[in-house]
Design the sequence.
């Protein structure tokens, strides 16, 4: 009887030991599978980071291209414009609020700057240079007289209409004109 008990105990340990080996093999197999899945996830994560960087680079390129287009050129500005000016503010002698005058402005682009030639009749009276950005043209007198700075800010509304302000700043006074511009016919 003692022998049978010992055999049963040894048999129980043996059977239990076989189960441990099976469980250990199963656990090792699961660890290998987890390790492989972890490696796959790391590879996917690296691919996503690379793709995200490519998308960011493409976005920056498109943004810079759009900004370049917005800041340097609008082909619809080019041409002849009739400019009606009305004095809206003045502190200078010889000028009064409500004074009006009309000029013809020829707008061109040299690739870097906006060039505006102002004519009174057929006489060229002034040349402005400036820039275009976010639908706004900012120009200043190309060759200002000493002590006089003339500048204008034009708001692009459509291919046939703009408006804005023209300022004449002298040493002791200032004149501001409201501008209404229409494409010359």
Sequence:
């Amino acid at each position: 009887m003692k022998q049978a008990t010992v055999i049963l105990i040894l048999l129980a340990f043996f059977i239990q030991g076989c189960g441990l080996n099976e469980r250990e093999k199963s656990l090792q197999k699961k660890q290998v599978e987890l390790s492989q899945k972890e490696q796959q996830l790391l590879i996917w994560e690296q691919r996503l980071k690379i793709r995200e960087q490519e998308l960011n680079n493409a976005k920056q390129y498109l943004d810079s291209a759009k900004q370049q287009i917005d800041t340097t050129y609008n082909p619809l500005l080019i041409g002849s414009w009739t400019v009606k000016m009305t004095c809206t503010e003045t502190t200078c002698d010889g000028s009064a609020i409500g004074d009006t005058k009309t000029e013809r402005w020829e707008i061109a682009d040299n690739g870097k700057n906006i060039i505006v030639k102002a004519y009174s009749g057929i006489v060229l009276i002034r040349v402005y240079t400036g820039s275009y950005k976010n639908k706004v043209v900012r120009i200043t007198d190309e060759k200002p007289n000493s002590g006089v700075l003339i500048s204008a800010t034009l708001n692009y509304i459509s291919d046939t209409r703009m408006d804005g302000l023209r300022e004449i700043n002298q040493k002791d006074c200032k004149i501001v004109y409201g501008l209404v511009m229409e494409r010359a016919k």
